C-alpha cells in the first residue's frame, strides 16, 4: 500500500477531549456492569479490572516488556488474584513494574557523537501503583516520588480514584529532573482511547528518525505542527517535550498517509 507523507494536517479530533469521552459502549470489554450483581464491590472490581487492562496495554505500547497473560487477564482471574474475602479490590496488590525492551532502549538512546561516543538510553524501569488514598496532595506525591527514585525507577505512574489537588499537581515539576512521575485517574483508564476508531495510530520517532525527518524536509523542529504534552494520546504514550510522533491515518481517497507533530 502506498503511504503518503505530509507535514501539515488537520488538528486531531481528540485533543480537547478526555480519555473516557472517546469511548463508545461497543469498545468496552465484554463484561459490563449489567452482567454482575448490582453491588458496590462488583462495580469496583469491573472498574479496576478495566483500568488494570488499559494501564498494562499502555505500558506495553510504550515498548516495555510485559507477558501477554499480564495484559489479557480475565475478569475471573483478576477477581481471584486481587480481591479481598469481602469482594473488595486490594489496590496494594495491583502494583507492578516493567523493564524497557531492547527496541525501546534503542529508540531512546541518543546518536553517538565525538563528545559522547557511548550514549546512555534516557529510559529505564517503570513503576505503576494504584493508590487508595481518599485525598491526594503534596505528601502523597513526595512519598510516591521518593519510592520511585530510591528504587531506581526512571518513570513512575500513579493511578488514583480522586483528582490531585492543585498543589500536588504543581509539585510534580519539582522531581522532573530525578524521575518522570505521571498521574492518571482510574476513570480515565476504563477504556483504551487508542482503540477508538477516530484515533489514528501514533508512533514515536527515535532521535535519529527525528533528525532524518527534519533534514529531509529542511525544517527546524519549531516548524512542525504541534501536539500538546497534555493531549490524551501524548499522555498515553508518555511523550516528552521535544519528541516527534508520526500519525498514520487512512483515507478512502488518499489511502494511508502520515503526518508529524512535535510534542510541546
TrEMBL record:
Cleaved signal peptide residues: none
What range(s) does the RNA polymerase subunit H/Rpb5 C-terminal domain occupy? 191-263
GO biological process entries: transcription elongation by RNA polymerase I; transcription initiation at RNA polymerase II promoter; tRNA transcription by RNA polymerase III
**What Gene3D superfamilies does its record include?**
RNA polymerase, Rpb5, N-terminal domain (3.40.1340.10), RPB5-like RNA polymerase subunit (3.90.940.20)
Q: Does Transcription show up as a keyword for this record? A: yes
Q: What is its main location?
A: nucleus
Q: Which InterPro entries match?
A: Arch_Rpo5/euc_Rpb5, RNA_pol_Rpb5_N, RNA_pol_Rpb5_N_sf, RNA_pol_subH/Rpb5_C, RPB5-like_sf
Q: Name one Pfam family in it.
A: RNA_pol_Rpb5_C
Q: Which GO terms describe its molecular function?
A: DNA binding; DNA-directed RNA polymerase activity
Q: Which UniProt keywords apply?
A: Nucleus, Transcription
Q: Which residues form the RNA polymerase Rpb5 N-terminal domain?
A: 43-146
The answer to keyword Nucleus applying to this record is: yes
* Compartments, record wording: Nucleus
One GO term of the cellular component aspect?
RNA polymerase III complex
Family annotation (NCBIfam families) = PRK09570.1 (NF007129)
**UniProt record similarity statement:** Belongs to the archaeal Rpo5/eukaryotic RPB5 RNA polymerase subunit family.
What is this protein identified as? DNA-directed RNA polymerases I, II, and III subunit RPABC1
